[in-house]
Amino acid sequence: MRLLKIVPDNTNLPFVSLRKWAFGLTILLSVAALALVFTRGLNLGVDFVGGLMIEEKFASPPSLDKLRTTIDNLELGEARLQSVGNDNTISIKLPPPESTDEGAANRIVQQVQVAISRDFPDARFSRQDSVSGKVSGELIWKGILAVVLAVVGIGLFAIFRFEWQFGVSTVVAIVHDVLMTLGFFALSGFEFDLNIVAAVLTIIGYSINDKIVIDDRIRENMRRYRKMDMSAIVDLSVNETLPRTVMTSVTILLALFALLIFGGPVLRGFTAAMILGIFVGTYSSIYVSSSLLISLGLRPDPSQAEPVAVTGTPKAR
């Protein structure tokens, strides 16, 4: 039985020759992602802003003005409406209830559902969530702290495990992956909550796992081919690990697409972030971090060359 090979043997793709284009594309996408975050903003979930979130699905796109009027007539406070994924799904965010009674949130949700069902017979309740303002402030701080500590810790590990160039390139690649995720959520309008923070940390873990494999092969080839040009070493190392990288990404994507289709609306944002992260993480590992080692001045050190074993007996002259 022949083994399935997505990437042929002896692949020799010139990744390094495209590094200037890759660097330009990376900078352009990063700036665009930052611009989207600052101009459009993130659709923060109640985990981060506090209050009540009610998600309703409609058979056809509803009139947001009519829907807002329906909710405002209940006098529950200022309501924020936003489309989620498509115009048929609307996220309704309300201030937290003044009462500390556990059933207060459920009573408000029931009021909203009754009012919407009366004016929009095709509406279908999807889900709800509730978080107090104090808890949401703590969650924002802890979420940011978790991401920052992960990036710094991984960068320090790469510095001590390899060399400082590897640490810098690792941090640059991870920051790029995080920015791409934030830009995607600013553009798509998907709700950004604690599930997405978990997805970002998972993306960071996947990206660093892929990058460490490539970095380890680069360092190994630097010792083995100490007279080879650094560009050739990086190309060789990336091509040698390419089958493993592609196979890992494909198998993970198969599971994620199944989760996207059958996982329901609760996991849709998490799954979308993970799918994007697989593509972005693979791209940054191959084109950004590996090629950046050359720009940072990494070179083979002849004094660290591995000894070459000599077999056989020399012939007498």
What does this 3D model show about the protein?
- The protein has 317 residues and is α+β, with helices and mostly antiparallel strands.
- The chain has 2 domains: 193 residues, Multidrug efflux transporter AcrB transmembrane fold (Up-down Bundle); 81 residues, Alpha-Beta Plaits (2-Layer Sandwich).
- 62% of the residues lie in helices and 10% in strands.
- The protein is built from 9 helices and 6 strands; from the N terminus they run H-E-H-E-H-E-E-H-E-H-H-E-H-H-H.
- The strands form 2 sheets. The chain has a 4-stranded antiparallel sheet. It has a two-stranded parallel ribbon with strand order 1-6.
- A hairpin with a 1-residue loop joins strand 3 and strand 4.
- Helix 1 packs across helix 6.
- The longest helix has 33 residues.
- It is elongated and about 75 Å long.
- The relative contact order is 0.15.
Structural class: alpha+beta
SSE string, helices as H and strands as E: HEHEHEEHEHHEHHH
State the shape: elongated
Q: How many H/I helices?
A: 9
Query: Could you tell me the number of beta strands?
Result: 6
Beta content comes to 5-15%
Radius of gyration: 26 Å
- Which architecture name of the largest domain does CATH use? Up-down Bundle
Mean pLDDT value: 77
The third-level CATH topology of the largest domain is Multidrug efflux transporter AcrB transmembrane fold
The portion of residues assigned to helices is 55-70%
The main pleated sheet reads as: 4 strands, antiparallel
Task: Tell me the domain tally.
Answer: 2
- Identify the CATH homologous superfamily of the largest domain: Multidrug efflux transporter AcrB transmembrane domain
* End-to-end C-alpha gap: 50 Å
**What top-tier CATH class of the largest domain fits best?**
Mainly Alpha
